[in-house]
Amino acid sequence: MKWPKIKLRRMDVERVLIACSAALVLLLSVSSRNVELEPYEEPLEDIPVSEVAVSAPQEEELQQTVVYYEDGDGYLVPVQRDVQRQDGIAKATLNLMVQSARNDMDAARLGLIPVVPENTTFDLDIADGHARVDMSKEVLNAVDKQQEENLRTAIVWALTEFDSVKDVTFLVDGQQRDTLTHGTNISGSYTRVGLNQEEPVQDVFGGASEVQIYFPAQDERLLVPVSRTVYSNDDVATAVFEFLRGPKADSGLQTPLPENTQLLGVSVENGVVTINFSKEFAQIAQQSDGGIQAMRALMLTCTRYPEIKKVKILVDGEPYQMPTQDTPTFANVASEIENYFTEVMTIE
Known about the structure:
Number of strands: 12
Strand order of the largest sheet: 3-4-5-6
Strand content: 15-25%
Distance between the termini: 88 Å
Shape: globular
Largest sheet: 4 strands, mixed
Structural class: alpha+beta
Order of helices and strands: HEEHHEEHEEEEHEEHEEH
Mean pLDDT: 85
Number of domains: 2
Number of helices: 7
Radius of gyration: 34 Å
């Protein structure tokens, strides 16, 4: 039996091959949906060294700035922070004081809160020692007059931390205003006075001056600067006397020195202030931290006067070994507080 001869043209063969290929591709794509293929990763040792990219982490360049936060008693607290080095550090410092998720978290680690209302932005112009701060309209959302006064003072003190700024003027949304929502004055220019100013017990008359004293907070975590009106010279002897008197009653601040301690004398020579206390002073070692914060507060109170470089303590005329020998350069350093009081807030 002879089979019939079938003749196929080349065109027909190509069409059959194309159809078969298409069917095969379709079959494979359908089956792959039900089969989980394991990705292939070439072992690292099999990759030529020239193809391995190694990037060493770059160390971030930091700089220091001073941010002013508010504590639970309404005091403004200066905190020295390390931030990324950048142009426009003065404006960046103001931005750190605005309420936001990130800033709230950073402040909470220190037991503090930002003082400028949420979403407030700043335009800042500094020339010839004068800083002009244009605040966006959100600054008008402060909850009360205390917040307004604190944000105004915080901005002035934060900017005058920079040598290039001597005084500060304010605008709101590009316009001059006399007051904020709750009546806080923002007209004129402001200088570096009146931080946490105590209310004077009587009317202020001529011859009064203002001294700044540091007191520990009740939890001893922070040192709080207080401005007090006195009727004597603003000098280190006056500041030490006011430090000995302690904060006002119900201030929320800690009386730093033991009860009944008396000041026997203050002298200054060659940049060293020598302070002679009565024997009761030695009880400072019984404080919960051994008197460290009290001594830091005293040293900061003294060394804010440019001529004072070192503090020496006597007790009844005899040298006293202080619990800390290092003269602090700043009241509150963020990294030190976070390391020492790790229980304030833990961020996971």
